Amino acid sequence: xxxxxxxxxxxxxxxxxxxxxxxxxxxxxxxxxxxxxxxxxxxxxxxxxxxxxxxxxxxxxxxxxxxxxxxxxxxxxxxxxxxxxxxxxxxxxxxxxxxxxxxxxxxxxxxxxxxxxxxxxxxxxxxxxxxxxxxxxxxxxxx
Length: 143
What we know:
Layout: E1 10-15, E2 27-28, E3 31-38, E4 42-43, E5 46-48, E6 53-66, E7 72-79, E8 83-88, E9 97-110, E10 115-123, E11 130-131, E12 136-141
Antiparallel strand pairs: 1-3, 1-12, 2-10, 4-5, 5-10, 6-9, 6-11, 6-12, 7-8, 7-10
């Protein structure tokens, strides 16, 4: 009884690494590698919903060298309807974080032609944080 549909929206993209990104600047995440893009709904770092529905969207952020002198580090998954975020306070650690992973997983309501993209921002601190290439953005039409 299992079925697959070649036009079912589903994508998974891998980020382009960014070394020592600028602090106090909003960065739109660039995805240099599409692992798969069923139905061709992911382009220019943005997913565009082809039909109205509920979409499972996932973002896994892998950072390196997060400094303790930053006020906060936030990752955003921004859709046409709302914004979802994950935030940390690096000052709560006793040393710079060599490896740090953040995630966002949400079942988002999207209308046809709504979009979703990813941003990240470090408030102040040393510009030493790296966005690692093992950062992913994925999603699919759930219902």
